Task: structure prediction
Amino acid sequence: MARPHNRDTVIPHQPGGSSPVYPLRPASSAVSGQPASGPAVDAVLRASARPGSVISTLELSQRSTRPPDHESENRALVALVEAMTAASSDRILETLVETARDLCRAHSAGLSLLEEDQKHFRWPAIAGQWAPHLGGGTPRDFGPCGTVLDCGVPLLFSHPERDFPYLASVTPCIDEGLLIPFDVNGQTVGTIWIVAHDRSRRFDAEDLRVLTNLAKFAAAAYQTRLSMSALMKANQELREATSALTNANVLTKKLNEEKRHLQDELLAEGASNDKRLRELDLLRANVARQATAKHFIAGSAGMQEVLELAACVAPLDTTVLVCGESGTGKEFIVRLIHDQSPRARGPFVSINCAALTETLLESELFGHVRGAFTGAVRDKAGLFEVAGDGTLFLDEIGEMAPTMQAKLLRALQEHEIRRVGAERTVKINARVVAATNRDLRAAAGAGTFREDLYFRLGAFVITMPPLRERRDDIPALAYEFVRRSAARVKRDVQTLSAEAMTVLMNYHWPGNVRELEHAIERAVIVARGTSIKVRELPPEVFQKPDDGDTEDNLDLQAQERAMIARALERFRGNRRQAADALKISPVTLWRKMKEYELVE
Result:
């Protein structure tokens, strides 16, 4: 039997008794200008009186119709929902055909899905007397399923073996069959059919309604289950990669590949995908953070006390406020608290409150709904939601505007937020940890920071000591930065000279650990050998002694060396002019330069 290529094609009469398929859009729609109602009883015109297998679905409305059984339908929908949790997505299809057979009192029911080549059907689910044919299939042109697929509307067949001879060999035979398209995600991928093998069962309009509703609900459940399976598979692969790979660079490459793959699959899922992509980035950052943590240096008494406080508060849900100068490592301690807490498996999300305007900060923290402001083209989850059961780190909290302070205080007190432009609230469970380089207690007293918010955030305060108060850590930090910088810029620099280390120990480091790291990186770049000399350090490090330590520094050699280095720097390496300025002979200057390793 030939098939129409669109809903207005008329199929001519075929030899052997096949009857035509008439236009599948109601004539009334062409006259009135109203669109066809889709897969409903009135979607197919009255059929021809000549013999043939295709019957208009309008005939269903002329038959005696049984009353709706809403209770049974509800139980069927519940069964479909429960099938979504099964290990295999085919369980949804099996449940669909079983409920279709039971609700429509059919002798057999089944589902035909198109193969990837679009030329063959497979039968993943069959219930009833045709169950032995499960797993089989047919070419697309061999049966009524192809006709329904091309028409795009339900069709009623009577003895279809007259048009499709191969069906005569399938037992038991088909006396009457009702077929409807199976649409998933807006695309017709197969057909759902119910069959009566003898005249003891005739289908009616109620069967068409029930079958159509079941198909719509099952399609949504099936698509959701496929998406869930893809996400669970991707998440499982990420967990296996995290536990199996020890090389951070190899793992980062793997995660980037997985991220690109997931982006292609998840972009159509909407705002929820933004959260998943952020979690993927957070996982990659967590792997890099764990690799860095192995080289964390904290040998001084001050840092040991900080680590003890962090270990005490990590297992609790107490809000933590980390204070300290810029560059002292506040964020590292916050991450350490997260990694040692029961929330370590959850996301670690951070935001710099000083880097965004008030309106952008509100949108980032709380999220927004579509149309909330210009450019809000879709719903977006805020960082409170993205953090989930993990940790939200608010850096530079002291720079937050007063109105935002009030909204943050409410979120901390009520454990709920409201997206920008939304009416309903969303419950949150993220732990909040904040950091600042300001004296928030003084700011609260001066009225520039809310006092109630300070006490809410400052339930547990950790103060980071500046580098000048933990000089015992400078050698270990310096050697570690030499190793990292040499590997990064691919230079064969391995150590520092004793004189360079003395200069580092005497410098006051206003930029703390961050300034030390940058000073070492510069020295590695300009170094002319495997050991960093004093002249290769930044000028401000060896030219400007720590004013606060000048009176206490009784190291005569260190002071002499520093004066010689300053003189050479001032006269651009001219030893005679430097010797004259130092009131010593050029020979004495040369000897001391070799003694203090100032010779290039």
